[in-house]
Amino acid sequence: MTCEPTSTPDIDLPRLREKYRQQADKRRRPEGFAQYREVTEDLEEFLEFEPYEPLPARAPLADETDVVVLGGGFAGLIAAGRLKAAGVGSIRIIDRSGDFGGVWYWNRYPGVQCDVESYTYLPLLEELGYMPKDRYSYGSEIFAYCQQMGRHFDLYKHALFGTIVKSIRWDESLQRWRIGTNQGDDVRARYIVMAPGPLNRPKLPGVPGIERFKGHSFHTTRWDYDYTGGAWTSPELTKLAGKKLAIIGTGATAVQCVPHLAKYAEHLTVFQRTPSYIDDRGNRPTDAAWAERQKPGWQAARMRNFHIAINEVFDKNDTDLICDGWSELNRNIQAARKAAGWPELTFEQLMALREVEDYRAMERIRQRVDTIVQDPATAEILKPWYRFLCKRPCFNDDYLPTFNRPNVTLVDVADEKGITGITEGGIIANGREYEVDCIIYASGFETTTDLRRRYGIDIVEGRNGLSLYDHWSDGFRTLHGMAVHNFPGMFFTGYLQGGVSGSITQMYDQQGSHIAHIVAAAIARNAATVEPSHEAEAAWVDTIRANLMYDTSFWEGCTPGYNNNEGLETKRYTIFGEPYGPGFHAFDDLLRQWRAAGDFAGLVFTPPGPAPTNSGE
């Protein structure tokens, strides 16, 4: 089936540029991420409790193993699976949750669903022989798939669930990492893989009075079905009858759960700082005949196509395999170039064309709001005034119609003072108190706050007590985004200084495979440690900074959010780290060539040290 470009309206580009600027400016706050509150001990009920699969108490563990993987989500599962495939059997996986899944373990709110098609998001589908049930998988299926990955790689025997890492210190006398936990464990490892994922720690709005509220409250990542009724597989929230609810936040999570809350609550008040881009979802079951037609390598090809659709430009021979809202802009650019006879364009001309098509596509989205939302004033508040990808796009068929319900109120807090406090009985916003029985925080995660807050580990110390947080205080310093000088045998996954893929799980597989290659080589050599030299680390930082794939002018013009460091300094410590300029696939080629050379250029292996005393099982 051919994927056609969308029909988009004409625009007044200068007027829209000014409108976007005004809308971004009124949302920009000088305190940046200080406007969000870290979930610490005085708010531990929002983070520390386990509503899903609480584990029994256990005795402290004294454990020694080759590799500790911190995190049991997709990053940790893939890294551990690749380590085992490389012959590394002495592994320990540590996670605070009661099972594998990471963000898909914790997020069980009603309506939870992947907003990227499952064929490009769920990793290793061909390897596991699995085909998703729907084009856009629901959270329960993704969680079950994580469990399947755990069984496929035989990882459950290596897992230490219900455990929170409190400190990581390098012990030079043992030439081991020592990991301290909330259970009193002393875990020693030759190598550590940091795989916490970017969405592992919830954050709260930094408004006074959260502790004062005497009603019920919870964060969406710890959904309280005892209070709401129902379950994530059958979200019939019948216990909300007669309840007045408030939800703070209108990002991807709120877009999915708001329709369910409104259906059952007596009244729902939605507090919005910035409206989300909302297009139709149009989910459907996976077509069995289509699945049968897929040939070996189909998922890698689809992931590559999705990456190009988001991060690059379709050429005349590219076919849009994704054909949804994520690829609309690139699809329309391709059609415009085709209509013009495929003229040669400079980079500046191509970016100018992209800007026009971007504004036109976003105008289509705003006009779509008018066709769905009946009250003109409410519709106006729900319109997004920013470039595509400034804020994560959302796709939902029920969110906008929810605001036609008489029991739903939308409160815009971008103007005036916004939310200024929480009282014993409600929320103060724009000078008015809204009395509610329950506050639900859809306020997101510690995605781009400082690294200590993101990791949630107070102490990470390498040689001579060097803090990782101090080492990176002026920006990331790595080799290939995965290894760090003076932190021997510590490896990193996620957005640091490497290739950024349209599919984050594809990036995790790239990193997990590369790390497993290095660890397996170090174990085969019986090396005590392996780390980059200072010179190699410095050279890679220079390479990254000279080829930084980051359009600063684009992001600085965006509405404030986690994509652009809340509209402040955008060159470092954004959710994307410091990407490798030539792109994900060029970075993949670089890593493959590095491994093929066989000399492990830039890494230093030290002489053999003591062998581990057990298998870590």
Structure, explained:
With 617 residues, the protein is an alpha/beta fold. The strands form six sheets. Strands 2, 3, 4, 5, 6, 7, 19 and 20 form an eight-stranded mixed beta sheet that branches. A five-stranded parallel beta sheet has the order 9-18-10-11-14, covered by helices on one side. The chain has a three-stranded antiparallel beta sheet with strand order 15-16-17, with no helix packed on it. A hairpin with a 2-residue loop joins strand 16 (426-429) and strand 17. The radius of gyration is 24 Å and the shape is globular. Mean pLDDT is 91; it is low at 611-617.
Short key terms for the protein model shown above:
617 residues, alpha/beta, FAD/NAD(P)-binding domain, five-stranded parallel β-sheet, 22 strands, 15% strand, globular, disordered C terminus
Helix and strand arrangement:
Layout: H1 13-27, E1 36-38, E2 62-70, H2 74-85, E3 91-94, H3 103-106, H4 118-121, H5 125-128, H6 139-152, E4 159-160, E5 165-171, E6 176-181, E7 186-194, E8 203-205, E9 216-219, H7 225-228, E10 244-248, H8 252-264, E11 267-272, E12 278-279, H9 288-293, H10 298-311, H11 328-339, H12 347-372, H13 376-381, E13 394-395, H14 399-402, E14 408-412, E15 419-422, E16 426-429, E17 432-435, E18 438-441, H15 451-455, E19 459-461, H16 468-471, E20 490-492, H17 504-524, E21 530-532, H18 534-546, H19 552-556, H20 584-597, E22 603-605
Parallel strand pairs: 2-3, 2-7, 3-4, 5-19, 7-20, 9-18, 10-11, 10-18, 11-14, 12-13
Antiparallel strand pairs: 1-8, 5-6, 6-7, 15-16, 16-17, 21-22
